[in-house]
Amino acid sequence: MTIALVDVRKAYNIGGSEVFALAGVNLTIPTGEFTAIMGPEGSGKSTLMNILGCRDRPTIGSYTLDGQEITALNDVALAATRNQKIGFVYQHFNLLPRMSALQNTTLPLIYAGVDKQERYERAEQALLTVGLGKNMRQRPHEMTGGQRQRVAIAQALVNNPSIILADEPTGNLDTKAGNEIIDVFSRLNQQGHTVVIVTNAAEIARRTGRVIHVCNGRILGEESV
Fold first, then answer.
1. Which band of pLDDT confidence, cut at 50, 70 and 90, is reported for residue 225?
2. Secretion signal: which residues (predicted)?
């Protein structure tokens, strides 16, 4: 499922002036690639991730996903594409504290209208995939930061998306836990998922296959690692 951006620009009106968070991005991410996006604060990398994840639209430019022009979709079709094809992982986990790991993992399937038995079967499989077979009944406060992030990854996996987008997924973790999380993403990539992460940690970026450097809303360059 190839991602292709052509001359993508994103403008915001700030104080009556038009400010471009993205200023002409051209980027192709082939199916099955493991990519890191790096850049300083305010460089546009979060805006870029929001567009890649179909959470925002470019002001100008083309975004095609698996050959489909995303900018032409209405809001309903955009949401359906996002829910069916893309899984999201966030720095702050975004788990509900009163729910177990298993219950948290079922949440995307509830929103998708999947029946209860199938929800739990799929959630269990997702948690097994990220190595939490023994922690399914624990609540977030009973788990380490690394375990909570694994639950968040299981949530992202449960709809079986082709693409996984992760925004600073190791930002709240120590080095050991962070490396374990990247191990999980590497295994998912080897299983065929396209994985894109935003990170400011060079040692994390070096564990992907390709690093994209962003600054001032533009891609400055890239490197294979």
1. confident
2. none
